[in-house]
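Worked example

This section walks through a single chain of length 223. The input is the sequence exactly as stored; nothing has been trimmed or padded.
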Amino acid sequence: MTKAEREAKLIARHAEMSAFDAQYRRAYGNIGGVDEVGRGPLAGPVVTACVVLPEDFDVLGVDDSKKLSLKKREELYDQILDRALAVGIGICDNETIDEINILEATKRAMVQSIEKADKVLQKRDLGLLEHVLIDAVKLSGIGQTQTNIIKGDATSLSIAAASIVAKVTRDRMMMAYAEEYPWYGFESNMGYGTKKHYEGIRSHGITPIHRKSFLKGYVNAEI
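Given that input, the structure is written out below as tokens.
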């Protein structure tokens, strides 16, 4: 594929995802895309983001974060934060996950991110956050109407942007934890259950950032 062909493909993909969001923007006004990362790992937090993009957002390459390289995610992360009308981050740590379960922790973090994005919009005199597009999860207790979309990060430009922001935010947290707990490979597995991660648990026990509810056979071996 030539450079021109790759660019044409990116333009077409951007137009498709942007058009999906535009229908909700016309109906509701300010819309936010919401996504999470970190539901499956054995360690670390679940992180969510709510991103409100301007109507003229023209950064190419924004897509489901799982489809993008580390370098591309980092590049797009900076561009999204620079161009977005508002960004909110929600975080629930491993202790909260153990206390209320991963689904409820994910929902709590999503509510946090939505509330934060709404406050940013209001602080900037850009109005209220009226509607949220959420990847798969249905929320209660929010002040916005919502649309829940299966594979939303591959459908909505706003949700895709949120997936990138959440992914980069959590990855940076896990890389910092890797320096504090160097035996588990957090810098590469981001807390997921890889061979190196399990070897680290067997050799050194679980850390304060491990999810005990995910590792019931190891809870008596804390470091």
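What to look for: The first strand starts at residue 31 and ends at 37.
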